[in-house]
Amino acid sequence: MTSETAAAPTHREPELLGQTVVLIGGSSGIGLETARRARAEGADVILAGRDSDALQRAALDLDALSTAGFDANDPAQLERFFEGLPKGIDHVMVTAGAPHYGCVLDMTFDELRHALGDRLLLAVDTARKAADRVRPGGTLLFMSAEGSRPSIGTGSVSTVAAAFPALIANLALELAPVRVNLIAAGFVDTPLSASLLGSDLEKRRDQLRATLPIRRVVGPADVAALAVHIMSNTALTGATYTIDGGEQLVSS
Questions:
Q1: Whose CB among 43, 65, 219, 238 lies 3.0–4.6 Å from 172's, allowing a Cys bridge?
Q2: CATH code at 178?
Q3: Is residue 9 part of a domain?
């Protein structure tokens, strides 16, 4: 007669237990999913975004510490937000903003300034204002589109994607020991993607399911899992992490 010894269940401490995560752009999509993942890993969350109603719904769902409705690209509003935060925040993630599509030469000067500057300038402004609020070893985490081949209509998007990693590396040096990292995403199936693609959304999903090596579409939960890993792994700084389901491997 033989006997088997049952393996004892492995106990894992939550990765962000007792930490505080600020999500700017936290009312929907990747920001909201990251907030949900951070809560599951033991963190408290502070949610910020433009849509106050969506923020309140998210706050109730996640039992958020607080919310703030404002435009992150307004320097004065962003400054007031950070001034209201306690010192010792652990992580700040910024997902606010949308890509600007169109031919570069057809854009007005103001349109081009917004297209090229919104995310880059927001990253610099966030870094400046968060510097005395984030604890040493904590994280500033930003989002951009992944780098791609130049094409008509995406000039400003590809320019920002190319510039962002260099900015992140420099911010990581200037803000050390606070860590600074970037997630560069391909297509992610979010409400923003749905609003940009409209009736072409399902066609895009079908194309990706057929061509991506992972044979499925990347979702907000995939990006959230990467974001929480970057927050919890204290050896990571100054780097760009691409998440696209392998799209760059099959793009012509």
A1: 238
A2: 3.40.50.720
A3: no
Bridge partners of residue 22, in order along the sequence? 46, 92
Concatenate the DSSP letters of all residues of 115-146 into one string. HHHHHHHHHHHHHHHHTTTEEEEEEEEEEEEP
Question: Nearest 5 degrees, angle CA 217-CA 222-CA 225?
Answer: 175
**44-49 sheet: strands from edge to edge:** 66-69, 44-49, 20-24, 89-94, 134-145, 179-185, 240-243
Nearest-angstrom CA–CA distance, 150 and 25: 28
Assess contact for 167 and 123: CB atoms under 8 A: yes
What's the pTM value of the predicted model, to 2 decimals? 0.90
Q: Which two tokens stand for residue 145?
A: 């589109």
Alpha carbons 73 and 151: distance in angstroms, whole number = 27
Instruction: Work out the average pLDDT over 196-200.
Output: 84
Band (pLDDT 50/70/90 cuts) for residue 252 is low
pLDDT at 1: 47
Domain count, the chain: 1
Give the residue with greater pLDDT, 161 vs 148.
161
Q: Please report whether residue 5 resides in a domain.
A: no
